Amino acid sequence: MASQEILREEPSRASFINDPKVRSLVFQAVVVVVLGALVWWIVQNTIDNLQRLHIASGFGFLRGRAGFDISDSAIAYTSDSTYGRAIVVGFINTLIVAAAGIVTATIIGFIVGVGRLSHNWLIRKICMVYVEIFRNIPPLLVIFFWYSGVLSVLPAPRDSYHLPFGSFLNQRGFYFPRAMWGDGSWLILVALLVGIAMAWFVARKAHQRQMATGQQFPVFWTSLALVVGLPVLAYALSGFPLSFDFPKQSTFNLTGGFQVKPEFLSLYLALSCYTAAFIAEIVRAGIMGVSKGQTEAAGALGVRPGSILRLVVVPQAMRIVIPPLTSQYLNLTKNSSLAIAIGYPDLTATAGTVLNQTGQAIECVLIMMVVYLVLSLVTSAVMNVVNARMALVER
After folding, report:
1. Of 142, 140, 148, 110, which Cα lies nearest the Cα of 127?
2. Which residues partner with 249 through β-bridges?
3. Are the CB atoms for 321 and 391 separated by under 8 Å?
4. Is the pLDDT of residue 395 over 50?
5. Distance CA 51, CA 64 (A)
């Protein structure tokens, strides 16, 4: 009986210190306190240093007169504009070169990646040499190569290369016709948006039809007709309001048209070619990750090799390609800050000039950090949405 009572006794509780839950809470609280103290020390030390150097903090300096020119601006800007507008100009320039570079690098990367798996020996080796060259050279040297080794040795404006559609290429950049929009031009833009929306609707319905019946629909040609045909129809109905200002060659320079300066061209081509080498390897790995049985099964059904690659292999490879592809897009956007080496006025260059003139180092650096962080987060969010749509959904 006594032994049964002993067995009924509750086991002794562990000590307060040896409780895993309590111990984890204590450790987390200590880490939070230490980090808070470290942040407070950094902030207080920064404030003391700013007061000692008689530097005012805050973002009020953004309303001050900039007093410097920017060579390449997509929006109206003069030296009488504010520091804030100068930073906005640099931000827009960064967006332009990053967006253009991402599109071009993706196209080149996919072509080279598929070419590396070609059965043609010459194409396969050319693609391999391309990848090995650009992948093993620092991006800054690639920028200098395009700027100093290619564009700077082009002929002077009087000896410009004549290109199709009234375009010119010389050491001062690339000149092409500028579109001049007249009254009623907004109809063309509306028609373009409507064409894109209708093309998306047709592609969606065609996909549903193919999944249900197996019958294909000429989505590409239909979408091309909608996206191109509707704006052309609107252009005719609105009285042909679009005209072009063609560049004209003179003795010392070109007048008229639209100029793309060599700084932008160098950065754009360098980032595109450099990043495309990494994208090519990602695409090659994604295609090789698709089971060979998929290709053999499609071939046994009589599908042509080109259609096998487009309809069977690439859609499955995209599930492998998209996650690492996001990292390359982020790298391209951040590598655009190397533009300061050749004088292209991106965000880093313009904010750096503002920093030198105002002495507001903390604020300018904080603006650059926040802008690049937001760009990276937005890019990641968009690619995560695309990745979620491409991922296999288990039932």
Report:
1. 110
2. 254
3. no
4. no
5. 21
Find out whether 344 and 263 touch, Cβ atoms under 8 Å: yes
What is the DSSP annotation of 274-294? HHHHHHHHHHHHHHHTS-HHH
Is 55 strand, coil or helix?
coil
- Distance (Å, whole) CA 15 – CA 12: 9
Other residues' Cβ atoms within 10 Å of the Cβ of residue 308 = 18
Distance CA 320, CA 284 (A): 10
Name the E strands within the chain. 161-163, 167-170, 173-176, 178-181, 242-245, 248-249, 254-255, 258-260
Q: How many other CB atoms sit within 10 Å of the CB of residue 369? A: 10
The mean per-residue pLDDT over the stretch 206-221 comes to: 82
Identity at 280, one-letter amino acid code: A
**Pair 94, 336: CB distance under 8 Å:** yes
Beta-carbon contacts of residue 126 (< 8 Å; ≥ 6 apart): 115
pLDDT averaged over the chain?
86
Phi, psi of 356 (to 5 degrees): -65, -35
- pLDDT band for 394, please (50, 70, 90 cuts): very low
- Helices 121-135 and 83-115 cross at an angle (nearest 10°) of 150
What is the share, in percent, of the chain residues with pLDDT greater than 70? Answer: 93
Classify each residue of 160-199 as buried b or exposed e, where b means 16 or more C-beta atoms within 10 Å of its C-beta.
beeeeebbbbbebbbbbbeeeeeeebebbeebbeebeebb
What CA–CA distance (Å, rounded) separates 250 from 244?
19
pLDDT in tens, 297-315: 888 888 787 778 877 888 8
Residue 346's closest CA among 178, 143, 146, 170? Answer: 143
Residue at 176: amino acid letter: F
Of 283, 281, 326, 333, the closest CA to residue 100 belongs to 333
Contact by Cβ (8 Å): 312, 295: yes
* Conformation bin of residue 64: beta by default, left when phi > 0, alpha when psi is -120 to 50: beta
pLDDT exceeds 80 at position 53: no
Asked if 270 and 337 touch (Cβ cutoff 8 Å), the reply is: no
Cα three-residue angle 268-96-107, rounded to 5 degrees = 55
Tokens of 300: 């046994």
Position 56 scores a pLDDT of: 67
